[in-house]
Amino acid sequence: MNAPARTLFYKLWEAHQVLRREDGACLLWVDRHLVHEGSHHAFAKLAERGLPVAEPALTIGVVDHYAPTRNRDRIADPDIARMIRTLEENTARHGIRCFGMRDPRQGIVHVMGPEQGLTLPGLLINCGDSHTSTHGAFGALAFGIGATEVAHVLATQTIWQKRPKTMRITVTGKLGPSVTAKDLALSWIAELGADGARGHAIEYAGPVVRALSMEGRMTLCNLSIEGGARCGMVAPDDVTFAYIKGRPFAPAGTDWDMAVADWRALVSDEGAVFDREVTIDGAAIAPTVTWGTSPEEALPITASLPDPDRLDGARADQARAAMDYMGLTPGQRIEGTPVDQVFIGSCTNGRIEDLRMAAAVLAGRKAKVPGLVSPGSALIKAQAEQEGLDRIFTQAGLDWVDAGCSMCVGMNGDLVAPGKRCASSTNRNFKGRQGRGARTHLMSPAMVAAAAVTGTLSDVRPLLEGRV
Amino acid sequence: MIMAGWNIIDGRAVALPQDNIDTDQLIPARFMSVPRKDGYGPYLLHDLRFDAEGAPRPDMALNRHPEASILVTRRNFGSGSSREAAVYALVDFGIKAVVAPSFGDIFASNAVNNGLLPARLPEDLIEALIARLGDGDAAMTVDLNDCVIRIGNEVMPFDLDPVWRLKLINGWDDIDMTASHGREIAAFRANRVQHAPYAMLPHET
């Protein structure tokens, strides 16, 4: 008799299960634990109990959330300087590798990990950050955790979890021109809701997902959390292996051959059963923007805002509150809404492909509004400069700055002023996310570039015609 | 810090009739560099509770009823960022239970790790509670023994994972629990080193 068909998720879970209690709680082994400045609570818990870090070699630190994007040699804000220093001290004390402020490999944790070959198929990856789902693009089991759990992983290199349900999102057909992984993600979240995948591990599949680059797959998996999923993943293939090969921490020689042989088995078996199946027509997806204060409030750029009077009780309240905060009116067309500024960057869309696409829109054009371009890592910054992308951005009138989480979360002081409207390649349009009273519209980097060029929310497709 | 377990809360409940109250709203990022010992209560829902000048908004439920210990709210509470500081802000303010149709997964897990109950109730019951509470507050009992909420003469069963129920009642700490599994972890590690050497990393030199 054949072994029962298993999902990719189940294979990853089983491969990391140290033990399963009778009540269903599982203790899982953690292969990579990434820590950033936010880990100070967890290190403090460890110190309180006098515990060492169990596996310093499998723990990796990086400065990103508070990283200044300008004038790094002289950090003016003492709180920011302290947050960065605390991470660097905590990692040094425990013998943990840290990509600190002066490291040429510094970058956003979910950009740096894959870039360094620390992220590999088949690994279980944890980080005290919800966008850890990004690493699932490699066929890894990767999910964000809170500070108490970070302390637990530091102390034991394991984590207690209950097994989530499984969900497969199959994207059929082919994406249209200038339509990206970001548009795909925003459109499924709009359809299923910001809690649509709650309690589930998502596997993305189908021809559209296969045709995505690793950058695109990372964007897609990154946004899994915005649909409420525990994690997102894509089965690894030759695109994955080509991306990883030769990276600093990737296996080499016979280890590489052995690894690839193992990784080829990381697919959902024919006939494997998912708790939920969703199919999306890739060809039907248009460039997508958010209009409200939750990622689920997203629309094709060609559409109009809903009318709260036509929604039921709680939904109507939500839509009214969102429109009030965003300064928009029921039924209005989203296209043509004037913006005050733009931002390109973040763990969602701060990779080289994202910068190339934005630059393709901006080349030879001027931005009508100010904006910030912050690459996802120092290495991406160097590569973009080698390709001349930085000059395209600066000649268009945008600021080209250092790598970090920057204006996605504003912890480093890169903020949107109250009431200002920002076209942003980031992941959250929550109230106050980019600064108190800031109005955020999420979209792809190409769409952000289009908003910069026109000064309004715009369809990027005509602007990219003949350019890519 | 070892948590104290609990079985029953007799407290005052208030309603926050909003969907998707994310952790950025529960504690705006700018307050997160403060050490916990100073207490996170003042930052809870800061930008909803206080206007741009820092004055309390009189129409905000938690300003009118600062003694509230039970929050009734709409779907997808605690979605977004994994920041445990969102739970610290609730706990330090005095909130012991949040009752909603659904929670962000990471938030719910963080809540239980800090003795805060994320109780799930069907949407229609939540809407009825919100209507009943209105702008005011009311006495409510949350009972972990039977997983029920009592308000007036009504008894409503809520959903809670049994693992989490025991953890809340006993105040269990995961690190202590895991310590008893040291041998299994060591054996797992040895097996990982042998069969997936590429999953390991050299120590920093």
If you had to describe this structure to a student in words, what would you say it looks like?
The complex is a heterodimer of chains A (468) and B (205). Chain A is α/β, with parallel strands linked by helices and 468 residues long. Chain A folds into 2 domains: 8-276, Aconitase, domain 3; 289-464, Aconitase, domain 3 (2-Layer Sandwich). Helices cover 33% and strands 17% of the residues of chain A. Chain A has helices spanning 8-16, 40-49, 78-93, 109-115, 147-156, 181-192, 207-210, 214-222, 238-244, 253-263, 313-326, 346-349, 352-362, 378-386, 389-396, 445-454, 461-464, and strands spanning 17-20, 25-29, 32-35, 59-62, 97-99, 124-127, 141-144, 158-162, 165-172, 200-205, 231-233, 276-281, 288-290, 298-300, 341-344, 371-373, 399-400, 421-424, 439-442. Chain A is globular. Chain A starts with 7 loop residues before the first helix and ends with a helix. The model of chain A has no long low-confidence stretch (mean pLDDT 97). Chain B has helices at residues 23-26, 46-49, 61-64, 85-93, 105-113, 123-133, 162-170, 174-179, 182-195; strands spanning 8-16, 70-73, 97-100, 117-120, 138-143, 148-151, 154-157. Chain B has a 7-stranded mixed beta sheet. In chain B, helix 4 links the parallel strand 2 and strand 3. At the A-B interface, strand 2, helix 2, helix 3, helix 5 and strand 8 of A face helix 5, helix 7, helix 8 and helix 9 of B.
Brief description of this entry?
The complex is a heterodimer of chains A (468) and B (205). Chain A is built from 17 helices and 19 strands.
Pick out the low-confidence regions of chain A: none
CATH level 3 topology of chain B: Aconitase, domain 4
State the helix count of chain B. Answer: 9
Strand content of chain B: 15-25%
Mean pLDDT of chain B: 95
- Record the strand order, biggest sheet of chain A: 5-4-3-6-7
Text of the CATH class of the largest domain in chain A: Alpha Beta
Give the beta-strand count of chain B.
7
Total domains of chain A, how many? 2
What integer value in Å does the Rg of chain A equal?
Answer: 21 Å
Which shape of chain B, going by the Cα principal axes? globular
Helical content of chain A stands at: 25-40%
Largest interface: A-B, 84 and 63 residues
| Total number of beta strands of chain A | 19
Tell the overall outline of chain A. globular
Biggest pleated sheet of chain A: 5 strands, parallel
Question: How widely separated are the two ends of chain B?
Answer: 34 Å
Domains of chain B, number? 1
Biggest sheet, spatial arrangement of strands of chain B? 4-3-2-1-5-6-7
